[in-house]
Write a structure and sequence with these properties.
five-stranded antiparallel beta sheet, about 575 residues
């Protein structure tokens, strides 16, 4: 005979394979997704840095333009006073020495009036200024930006030059940029952001950058190339994101962005070291996740097998007791395993079990409905008594104009009260009924009991007992506001909290002494309530507990002279038939 594999052992292997397979699949998909997101975010972050650098140069360009215009204005105002011009050039240079290497005027003979100390002393003509002066002379309405070059007095620099229009003799204004300051800014970004930035001209010359992390670059004479790709080829392509390889075959990612004001391009070269570091940490986490998944699979599989095996053999040993009439459980499963053995034994008793349960349920349901009807029947006569008293009060006081209001509210109350008391109603209907009741009491006592509704969204249609709120509101008027002796607001809250629904009636009246609170919800009503035929809170407590269980019902919180809060607690998940 072929040996059967027990069900718990089958479940162990099935659950183990399923859980471990899911963890591996999810881990692989997560790893690929995170890898893609890291790469995308790295490109996005790099572009953000390039945008910030471009903004930095845009601001500097505006500053340099301002310097040029300031010099132009000063020279025109003091064209015949060389000493004043020299002084103002010196002051402008000292004010902007962080960003510029020199501020000076180029004369037609290529001599200068300089702002820095060396050029104030050595102002002889230099041939290197000829291209600058000629460019300014040809572009008299614009500012010319030179290619980077080695200046005798300013070192490695770029010059912004503008022709001085309106001067009695040819002259140009020049500002030598401090490329060391620009490079230092790029170096800080490289270090802080672990990036490799550089600023290059349209001809592929490096203005600044690529100092501490040259990586795959070959830098000579301020030019560079990546592998077999030259700077000119990089600039000629329209793509902003390039994937290149160094001479050593190392892949690098290159991003470029033209500056807005200068004819320069910002280059970022990333050898994916940041990406590899992030992925390395991710791989460690991935291996730890797989190890944890293996242990979790074993643990869950063991729990499932144990969970099935224990009731399986427990029920099998109790089967004979069930056959003798001790009903503890029911099961009907047609399988060729341990559950099948139990199922065939329970089938012989199924009819008897079903009949016994059906009779017990009918008996319990009938008894519960009768008890609910007995409790609810105590309420409706009191409403009529209270309402008629209100009408009598209005007529006795001669307030004939309020009779129609009272009668209208009375009709609404009667129509509401004569319906089936065991039928659930929505919270909206209860609130409408309470509003009619408050209207009558306001007229009866010549007070203003302001009704405030604070209902959480979605609870207006929550099913409650008919005449649930009116006794609670009546309690607030009778106890809290001395039976109409004083007036005040009555607030009704309804909200969900931790799987329950709470409906509160709050007043700000006299309150209930602490020694009396514990006696209010007992089963027997007080003598005063019997005498006045008032509905005790114990009646509401009994209805809720009878229907939903002892863990639900009423709760009273009272601070004398300040506030009284009566909370009716219901399950958020209502039994079938209540919703």
């Amino acid at each position: 005979m072929r040996r059967r594999i027990s069900l718990p052992l089958k479940l162990f292997f099935i659950v183990f394979a399923f859980v471990l397979g899911c963890i591996i699949l999810i881990s692989q998909l997560s790893y690929r997704y995170v890898q893609k997101e890291i790469r995308t975010n790295d490109i996005f972050y790099t572009n953000q840095i390039l945008d910030k650098v471009d903004q930095y140069f845009t601001v500097n360009f505006s500053s340099f333009q301002t310097i040029l215009f300031s010099v132009e204005t000063s020279v025109k105002a003091n064209i015949n006073n060389t000493e004043v011009i020299k002084k103002q050039l010196r002051e402008l240079y000292e004010l902007n020495s962080i960003y510029v290497s020199n501020i000076y005027l180029i004369k037609s003979d290529l001599s200068i009036l300089g702002g820095s100390t060396p050029t104030r002393i050595f102002d002889e003509p230099l041939s290197e200024r000829a291209p600058l002066f000629d460019a300014a002379d040809k572009n008299r309405r614009t500012t010319f930006v030179s290619e980077p070059y080695k200046s005798k007095y300013s070192g490695w620099t770029v010059t912004m030059v503008r022709y001085l229009n309106g001067a009695p003799f040819p002259m140009a204004i020049a500002v030598d940029l401090d490329l060391n300051a620009i490079e230092e800014t790029l170096f800080k970004i490289n270090k802080q952001e672990q990036m490799n930035l550089a600023l290059i001209t349209a001809s592929g010359k490096i203005i600044a950058g690529f100092s501490e992390n040259k990586g795959p670059l070959n830098i000579q004479d301020h030019s560079f190339s990546i592998g077999e790709t030259s700077a000119e080829e990089i600039l000629d392509t329209t793509e902003t994101n390039l994937q290149l390889y160094t001479n050593d075959g190392i892949p690098v990612s290159l991003l470029k962005k033209p500056t807005e004001k200068f004819n320069w391009t910002i280059i970022s070269i990333n050898d994916e070291s940041r990406l590899k570091a992030a992925l390395s940490r991710l791989e460690t986490y991935y291996l730890e996740l797989l190890a944890a998944g293996l242990l979790l699979s074993l643990f869950i599989s063991f729990l499932v097998a144990k969970y099935i095996r224990k009731p399986l053999y427990t029920l099998k040993t109790k089967m004979k007791q069930v056959e003798q009439g001790i009903l503890t459980t029911t099961i009907t499963i047609n399988r060729n395993d341990e559950f099948g053995d139990l199922s065939r034994a329970f089938d012989r008793m199924l009819q008897q079990i079903v009949e016994l349960i059906r009779r017990a349920e009918l008996h319990n349901e009938l008894e519960r409905k009768l008890e609910i009807q007995v409790l609810q029947s105590q309420i409706n006569p009191h409403f009529l008594y209270n309402t008629l008293g209100s009408i009598s009060n209005v007529i006795r006081l001669g307030q004939i104009e309020k009779v129609d209001v009272v009668i209208g509210s009375l009709i609404s109350l009667l129509e509401y009260g004569i319906d089936d008391a065991s039928e659930k109603v929505s919270l909206r209907q209860e609130l409408r009924n309470v509003a009619d009741y408050i209207e009558i009491q306001n007229i009866r006592y010549n007070r203003n009991f302001n009704l405030i509704e604070d209902i959480e969204a979605g609870l207006m249609d929550f099913p409650v007992f008919r005449m649930l709120l009116q006794p609670l509101v009546e309690n607030s008027i009778f106890h809290g506001y001395n039976g109409g002796g004083i007036e005040g607001p009555i607030t009704i809250h309804a909200y969900r909290e931790d799987g329950i629904v709470i409906i509160e009636v709050v007043d700000q009246g006299e309150g209930i002494p602490a020694d009396k609170i514990k006696h209010i919800l007992i089963s027997e009503p007080s003598e005063e309530e019997v005498k006045r035929k008032r509905i005790g809170l114990n009646n509401i407590q009994g209805r809720i507990r009878l229907h939903y269980g002892d863990q639900f019902g009423l709760d009273i919180i009272s601070i004398p002279k300040e506030i009284t809060r009566i909370r009716a607690v219901f399950p958020a998940e209502l039994p079938k038939g209540d919703a």
